[in-house]
Backbone:
């Protein structure tokens, strides 16, 4: 395996990030992610870029001889449960939308109930 993949595997292991999550945030098929991370398939430059960006890092970060992996105890409290690097602008927008949905969930469920009642006549 390449230095890049060895460092990515180390990072994923230390940060307890699952391949399924990596597939979801990179858009790379989960079977392809598995083949890349086990060394069964070589990673392309595009794959490297997507993986690094998805983890909130640069390709150069994973090509370094030594990779700094933050200890979970040193991460800020609001990042411990979900820490996978710094969120992109798009990820922040999605998180904000989810928070707004959760804040208004009672209204959403109430509206659903009213629509179902109207539909039944």
Residues:
């Amino acid at each position: 395996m390449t230095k890049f993949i060895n460092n990515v595997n180390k990072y994923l292991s230390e940060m307890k990030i699952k391949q399924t999550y990596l597939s979801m945030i990179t858009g790379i098929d989960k079977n392809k992610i598995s083949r890349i991370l086990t060394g069964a398939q070589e990673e392309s430059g595009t794959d490297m870029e997507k993986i690094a960006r998805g983890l909130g890092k640069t390709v150069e970060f994973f090509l370094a001889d030594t990779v700094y992996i933050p200890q979970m105890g040193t991460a800020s409290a609001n990042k411990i449960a979900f820490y996978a690097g710094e969120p992109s602008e798009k990820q922040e927008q999605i998180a904000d939308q989810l928070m707004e949905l959760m804040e208004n969930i009672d209204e959403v469920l109430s509206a659903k109930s009213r629509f179902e009642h109207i539909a039944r006549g």
About this structure: Residues 76-119 form one domain. The mean pLDDT is 85.
